[in-house]
Amino acid sequence: MCQVERDEIAFLIGHEMGHIVRRHTLDRIVKDAAVALLLRRFSTRHAASAWMNQTGWQLLSRAFSREEELEADAFAFALVKNAGGDVLAGECLLEKLAQRISVQSVGMVGSYFATHPPLVERLASLRAKRDG
Q1: Fewer Cβ within 10 Å of end Cβ, the chain: N or C?
Q2: 45-100, pLDDT tens digit by residue?
């Protein structure tokens, strides 16, 4: 999707680096382990175990991911800006992504982005950083 737009590629890689630098990945592993332990203990003692194993896992394991996505976007924006890149790169990439999502069926794409803030919110956050 970025093709040869180096600043968009930098934003994308910076976003993923942001998850690592801000410890989102490590925090997610620790949180998932705690949730798994909680569900294992809960499901052996209560009749609601089927609901907890399906719905509860999804709700508990996604608690902070929207904030983490915005934080990773901010990290990527700062990285591109500090490197002298195009500060509009992240916005351009997210706009392309929004167009692609609107054309494709919701399916897998929709479930993947269910843990992400709406693209409109992410774009507004990037615009505020650029203007501020």
Answers
A1: C
A2: 555 566 556 666 565 555 558 889 999 999 999 999 999 999 999 999 999 988 88
Classify residue 31 as left (phi > 0), alpha (psi -120 to 50) or beta: alpha
Domains of the chain, by residue range, sit at: 6-131
Distance from C-alpha of 89 to C-alpha of 105, rounded to nearest angstrom? 26
Task: Name the DSSP class of 117.
Answer: P
The reported pTM is 0.73
Q: Decide if 42 contacts 104 (C-beta within 8 A).
A: no
And the tokens for 28?
A: 């997610």
Element containing residue 12 per DSSP (H, E): helix 6-21
Contact 126, 73 (CB under 8 A): yes
Q: Which of 101, 102, 76 is nearest to 90 (CA)?
A: 76
